[in-house]
Automatic annotation (TrEMBL):
One Gene Ontology molecular-function label: hydrolase activity, acting on carbon-nitrogen (but not peptide) bonds, in linear amides
UniProt record, GO biological process: glycoside metabolic process
Keyword Secreted tagged: no
Pfam families: PIG-L
Protein name from the UniProt record: LmbE family N-acetylglucosaminyl deacetylase
Keyword terms: Zinc
Biological classification of the source: Bacteria, Bacillati, Actinomycetota, Actinomycetes, Streptosporangiales
Originating species: Thermocatellispora tengchongensis
Length: 278
């Protein structure tokens, strides 16, 4: 019998690999039931395949491969269309009728809540209010996931994020040695994700770094596309020891905890001292 169920809610295939795959592999290895839910198939992402159904099908196949590598018990697609991005990184004007960003938030929350109730989930991950780096579908994940947890009564809601402070330092250092892909804008990360002071969970996933890297590699369509190597492809080129250092921690914010709480496991509860207590 599983120790408990954690649902990881993401906007597109490959988002799980970048933000939460180490935590997913860890929980699965520890005996928790891990469920992966995506809002869309990512059919408007940059790739060598043209945007559309064929790309969506390819990305879903990659998602199932990633999920298997991480030990997921179930994968669910909510069925919305990828909203895409404008050239300036905002909402695309040519998005499809069923775009996730245009979905009724309450209806979408009910769909996700149905999964949470069916799984009797004790934990769900979403994104921070800014949607990490600001993709419209990621912002919608925050809104929909937060409301779904309220509907289902899911007690633990974790916002998957990145500690902005060391990220900026690492990116500035990396820029001395690597040429970033065209879509990469350093300024985006100066206001993206979450500052260290609000982060409640720092999860050490170094024991599961091979699974995390394999999860990233499963999303082959996202390693290239557009004008060449993309961010995910660049990450996969990082040498093993440095990769372990850079990606060995995953970060979350739990808003219902008192200020200053620092935990190391998704299911931890704070003691009166604010330290981790299983």
């Amino acid at each position: 019998m599983a120790l408990g169920t954690a649902v990881f809610f993401h906007a597109h295939p490959d988002d799980e690999a970048l933000l939460t795959s180490g935590t997913m592999a860890m929980l699965a290895a520890q005996g928790y039931r891990v469920v992966l839910v995506v809002a869309t198939a990512g059919e408007r992402g940059l790739a060598d395949l043209a945007p559309g159904d064929a790309l969506g099908e390819a990305r879903m196949e990659e998602l199932y491969k990633s999920a298997a590598l991480l030990g997921c018990a179930r994968v669910v697609r909510l069925g919305y269309a990828d909203s895409g991005l404008s050239e300036t990184g905002g909402v695309a004007e040519d998005r499809p009728d069923n775009a996730f960003i245009d979905a009724d938030s309450e209806e979408a929350a009910q769909r996700l809540a149905a999964v949470l109730k069916e799984e009797n989930a004790e934990l769900v991950t979403i994104y921070d209010p800014a949607g990490g780096y600001g993709h419209p579908d990621h912002v919608q994940v925050h809104r929909v996931g937060k409301r779904a947890a309220e509907i289902a009564g899911t007690p633990i809601v974790l916002e998957a994020t990145v500690n902005r402070d060391p990220l900026l330092r690492a990116l500035r250092l990396a820029s001395r040695f690597y040429t970033f892909p065209p879509e990469f804008d350093m300024r985006t990360f100066e206001r993206a994700y979450s500052p260290g002071e609000v982060i409640t969970h720092r999860v050490n996933v170094r024991r599961y770094i091979k699974q995390k890297r394999a999860s990233m590699a499963a999303h082959a369509t996202q390693a290239t596309g557009g004008d060449g190597t993309r961010t995910l492809g660049m990450m996969l080129r990082i040498p093993g020891p440095l990769y372990r250092l850079v990606f060995g921690t995953e970060w979350y914010v739990r808003r219902d905890l008192p200020p200053g709480v620092r935990l190391s496991h998704p299911f931890d509860q704070p003691s009166e001292s604010g330290k981790s207590r299983p």
